[in-house]
Amino acid sequence: MQILSPAKLNWTLEILGRRADGFHEMRSWFVAVGLYDNLSFEPQQQSSTLTISGPMAAGIPEDRRNLILKADALWRKAGGVAPLGAWHLEKQIPAAGGLGGGSGNAAAALLLLQGMATTKPKLGLEQLALTLGSDVPFFLQQQSAILMGGQGEQVLATAEAPQRSIVLAIPFIPVPTSGVFRNLDAPGFPNGLENKAKVDLSFPTEPGVNDLLSAARIAAPKLALFESGISKVARFHLSGSGGTFFCVAEDPQSAANIAAEVAHLCQHSCVVPLLQGPVLTRVET
Fold it and tell me: Distance (Å, rounded) from C-alpha 132 to C-alpha 15?
């Protein structure tokens, strides 16, 4: 069994404030884009294992630190029963770049296990997903453009993403998420404040603000230099806490031209489409 796990972008990202529990209340349009990891599963008797290959596999742990095996263990602990198996990840999405690769892998593992279950877990997949990370629930959605709220667990609106070509500019500059949030000057946020009625729930035609950008520049000074270079070519936007930037092009040829112009500034650049329909895609084998 195989499943394609795409990258995500934060089309917009607003930080509404810091809650009493220490987490930040956010509101963000997530979109899925056509850069994929491929996760496969083959039943085996003794234990669940993980191997990783592909151009972005270097440095990614294959032990219990990996979110795939964490998802496997959590799903079974919640009462799910399915064969043990050998997981294999073909890694195409760069790690730690604001693209949600690990979160998507975790959601993909949950979905594959649910499909093989002889007994379903007592908790729903979205509850399990949130336990694994605030970005994980997005990948279980049936639309590829979702306005998420709270920590990322609240679905405020859904939309069909438009057909657009996206240029990804990836510098492989480490941007520590904890450092970004330490540098974030967010006001206090009252618990229980309802935001859904106060926001335009329509999908914005162009990417909007990312409230983490200034804090990311402080946490990773090289990121600001990189942004300065690519911004001379086109209007780029930061995804998540970084360090991937993306640009929306008018058409595929314009996207290819922009990608070629910034290639010498990046460790990796590519052109991908915005995706439509369910975020995760099963592959029959």
Answer: 21
In DSSP terms, which residues pair with 149 in a beta bridge?
27, 154
| Cis preceding-peptide flag for 243 (omega within 30 of 0) | yes
Cα-based distances in Å from 98 to 181, 207, 208: 14, 15, 16
Buried b / exposed e along 91-129 (16+ C-beta atoms within 10 A) = bbbbebbbbbbbbbbbbbbbbbbbeebeebbebebbebb
In which residue are the tokens 């084998």 written? 285
Kindly compute the dihedral angle of the four CA atoms of residues 186, 159, 207, 263, in this order, to the nearest 10 degrees.
Answer: 120
Catalytic residue among 8, 37, 72, 91: 8
pLDDT tens across 20-29, in order? 777 788 899 9
Is 122 part of the annotated catalytic residue set? Answer: no
Neighbours of 250 (CB within 10 A): 10
User: In this model, does residue 197 exceed pLDDT 50?
Assistant: no
Using an 8 Å Cβ cutoff, are 90 and 54 in contact? yes
72 is a catalytic site residue: no
CB-CB contact of 270 with 124 (8 Å): no
- Cα separation values, 261 from 141, 229, 237, 245, 268, Å: 35, 11, 16, 14, 12
- Distance separating alpha carbons of residues 197 and 72, to the nearest angstrom: 37
> Which of 37, 72, 91, 135 is flagged as catalytic?
135
What number of other Cβ atoms are within 10 A of residue 75's Cβ?
24
pLDDT per residue as tens digits for the range 49-75: 999 999 999 999 999 999 999 999 999
Q: What is the pLDDT of residues 228-279, one digit of tens each?
A: 999 999 999 999 988 899 999 989 999 999 999 999 999 899 999 999 999 9
pLDDT of residue 174: 85
